[in-house]
């Protein structure tokens, strides 16, 4: 596929169909309720946004509704840590292997010297602990605004408070990491930062923008400004492809073939390398905690537009 | 064997030989250092004490040195919880199966609904959390003084402070238990109580006394006073036999055959059912964290005096 | 408890009540069907037999029905290997720790140098492989007749053939043991021998007799003949207590407190040390694969007659 | 990168440097010896071959030495099964998730309904069992000759015999798969076929050719003949990327970024999608069982020529 050959019309039509396909299946999933505040989302909401390197923006449905980034924010933390602390330091504290286990696993953590990868909770907590001496949450919020090309991003206080009340498992992970000398920060501080970053409000369009920057090697294609090092973008994309969808990462790589990261807030961020970014909102989740409408829409787009990495 | 048939002289001689055998091997182990304050123990110290149902006390070596109870205190907590909360409530929150894994394992905990048994850290934290609404640490200290027939038992503040500074793994366990709804208490409170009970100062004689009370079905044989329900003593002894020596419990059951609980402070508490209690102090530990002199001495006593459960 | 003090009448009455209690619950379990031939058993059958050191025999129900020994035969193999190859050789090839996992587990086997213990399939296959150069199946059959005081024991060909057709998992275990150099025999030969020993026909009375011999330290109390070394009986009893009921061994030790081994044929062999042997037949199994009537009957007998090890 | 822009000279020079870099490190690894016949390889041998879509062939070192395909053959079996049995049938019997464990793991297999993916031993045995009713080994040999554009491929009888003598672990895996109803074939037949396919003799050039066909969507670029369905090539490449290097797959994806499959015979097959195939021979292996010279050479080529998927 060559994005240049994708006419406006074809893209817009494909997006509309993808949206409708996604809409159809929202009833088969359910919104996350383990964080009570997330349970208030409208399950039938679906929003899609594609932004291309040449500056075009395509939207369908609720593409400007705000929702919390949740695990999609692990990409932000990884990117920022790579920029500030460097590749070697980051990967002394976290691996880059798929875990084959659930996002919040402790089981496997204990037998290893460091978390499997930066896209599971344990790995993200380790990555963020590398940032604590260097950056405040405000800095990370500004970083998010920059790479998402979205100055409107803010902290969602209700979700943050709701999550802080239900984060015992993440505290367990952080204390285990501390006992294994992977992190050396105060656990309360680490968990607060981790939870705040999860709780920032984005839209499908913000995610599409960040994905587009990654697709374009770290450069904002609209003005040529470099926002991330090329090596940072490359590392983030490779890890997204192998580890982005938790224990369903391999299947997603085969069936959809687009590096993607999901969050339980209903967000999906997909990088069509060299071409475009795709952002999705769809809070009705499948049994793996991924947006059920989003997966359906991405499968359709991958096939219809030939977006599979190995197509 | 019938304790009545064991003459004073034979017991005293066996104890002396056991002491010398233990003394010989202290150089092959090492004192625990992961809690810095424990590292100050004299590795060559060995103390043994036997107390029999008919009120006789036999001693050898450093039988009155004070040391912290550590994991032997898990017996205290289990006994007290059985007395106050009852069998059913206790075992709704903790299992009674050997874990086959290390004392501070998290690995296996995550796949289960409750800790394996009350004699590993996770299980003891769960058990103590059942006591928090009902009892203060002072009450538990008094309980220890009562069942050990030892009013001199106190909290060792130095060890307590040292442990509190290195208990991240136990905090991880407690938060995991909380996230799984096994405990509902404040984690800081639970960890404080857990660590305090681990840090109380006993002697080999105190342990022998508690063991004798258990051997005698919960009754102080010296004055006939019932200190524990018969069912409590029975349950504690059975769990000691199958789970008391961590992942070496099975081997110890075959080779020594005396229900025993160890602690990294160097203590061992052994119940020769219906006959006597044995207390050991020997801070030089083998690779499993058990007193190396103590194991050697108990093996000798078991053979020499025919104390094996199935002899 | 002192068996001498148990009058004939009290024992007989307790046994009758235990039988009725067991009978009541047979409908709550189911006969094993993974070996098709076992599926033909009458689920409502229940047989109990107690044999005491002083030569008395108490029976209730279907105590003389023949059924296959299945996993109870692991005691035979362990005892014979201890007699012929010795303690050290046996435990170089198998551990003595409870596994905390199911009888036919492979999961945990791969991370260890040898099977957990001789009473799970992997351990029994390892133990029997030690016998292959020394003994034929006929020798083992005769050994069974001797220790069960039952010359009528024979191979059940139908069950044997049925099991040989469904033993892929055991073959997997045997090949894994071979690849780890735990066994060096031909796998086909090992599996044949293993399956044959599982398929010998016993009755509740045969099991009670073998249990009585173990309870009496390896000596046939009826004629004073030593059938097993004292050390063999001691080792077998200790391992039964900690490992005899698979992943329910700890709970059984606490709640019933009698060293017992179960088989999916519906048999249970229980050793009341120094006192008596108990044999059970009850092919309706609970979810752990243990005779549901048998467990119920043993719980009753333990309480009623004070047979708990720590009572 | 655009392969059209890579001049002959630049490619040839990069290949030569890659060869020298690889040659330098051969002393840091060791040839496989667990299959005795493999132990006879010259550890210092290194061969590289690149074949491009426009028909050019670049070689360095021992690019025409014959060696056995070993695990690289798992790609052949997967491709053939996808062609003959179809995507749905194949993935009913095997997953597509990275395992995070070693190539011959049994540990994790037992807790799942099917093997993790087709590129570990368990998965490959499952895939090949799907072929047994449909194809003989001769058919698979011919398939290998076709997709490798190499009519000289033959079975290496010495290696085959050597492997058959040391395949107890694979037999264990096969019997476990049979007991779980993943395979229904005779285990001996399955293991023979599996071992034969591992034992076919290829060269670095054969592997480069097969890789080029995959890079070209299943079509032989030299004559336009379609050898594999486009969907087969796509699936194989995606699984190679996430699962091709065992428990080092994630790290390789980040650091090299080229879908690659390794074998303990020293082979590596790398697909630079849409551009070229790379084949490597280097029997000195690193601790993960991958060609140490090959990894070094591929890292260099990826950087120097910009071959990383996300570059």
| Average predicted local confidence, pLDDT of chain A | 94
The ordered H/E elements of chain A are HEEEHHHHEHHHEHHHEEEH
**CATH class identity of the largest domain in chain A:** Alpha Beta
Q: From the structure provided, what is the oligomeric state, counting identical versus distinct chains?
A: homotetramer
**Sheet with the most strands, sense and barrel status of chain A:** 5 strands, antiparallel
CATH topology of the largest domain in chain A: Beta-lactamase
What ranges of chain A have pLDDT less than 50 throughout 5 or more consecutive residues? Answer: none
Provide the β-strand percentage band of chain A: 5-15%
| Record field, number of beta strands of chain A | 8
What is the architecture of the largest domain in chain A at the second tier of CATH? 3-Layer(aba) Sandwich
Number of separate structural domains of chain A: 2
Largest interface: A-D, 33 and 33 residues
Based on Cα principal axes, name the global outline of chain A: globular
Helical stretch tally of chain A: 12
- Give the % helix of chain A: 40-55%
CATH superfamily of the largest domain in chain A: DD-peptidase/beta-lactamase superfamily
Strand order within the widest beta sheet of chain A:
2-1-8-7-6
Q: Helices and strands of chain A: which structural class?
A: alpha+beta
């Amino acid at each position: 596929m060559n994005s240049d050959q994708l006419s406006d019309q074809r893209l817009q039509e494909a997006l509309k169909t993808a949206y409708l396909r996604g809409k159809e299946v929202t009833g088969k999933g359910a919104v996350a309720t383990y964080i009570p505040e997330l349970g208030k989302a409208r399950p039938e909401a679906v929003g899609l946004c594609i932004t291309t390197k040449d500056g075009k923006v395509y939207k369908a449905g609720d593409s400007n509704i705000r929702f919390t980034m949740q695990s999609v924010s692990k990409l932000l933390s990884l990117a920022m840590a790579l920029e500030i602390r460097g590749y070697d330091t980051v990967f002394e504290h976290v691996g880059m292997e798929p875990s084959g286990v659930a996002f919040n696993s402790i089981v496997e953590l204990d037998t290893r010297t460091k978390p499997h990868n930066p896209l599971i909770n344990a790995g993200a907590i380790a990555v963020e602990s590398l940032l604590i001496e260097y950056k405040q949450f405000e800095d990370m919020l500004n970083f998010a605004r920059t790479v998402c090309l979205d100055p409107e991003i803010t902290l969602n206080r209700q979700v943050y408070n709701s999550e802080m009340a239900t984060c015992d498992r993440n505290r367990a992970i952080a204390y285990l990491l501390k006992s294994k000398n992977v992190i050396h920060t105060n656990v309360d501080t680490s968990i607060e930062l981790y939870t705040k970053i999860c709780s920032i409000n984005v839209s499908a369009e913000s995610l599409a923008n960040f994905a587009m920057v990654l697709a374009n090697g770290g450069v904002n294609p609209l003005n040529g400004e470099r926002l991330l090092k090329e090596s940072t973008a490359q590392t983030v994309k490779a890890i997204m492809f192998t580890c982005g969808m938790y224990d369903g990462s391999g299947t997603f790589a085969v069936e959809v073939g687009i590096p993607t990261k999901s969050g339980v807030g209903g967000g999906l961020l997909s990088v069509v390398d060299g071409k475009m970014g795709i952002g999705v909102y769809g809070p009705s989740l499948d049994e793996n905690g991924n947006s059920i409408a989003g997966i359906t829409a991405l499968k359709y787009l991958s096939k219809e537009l030939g977006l599979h990495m190995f197509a």
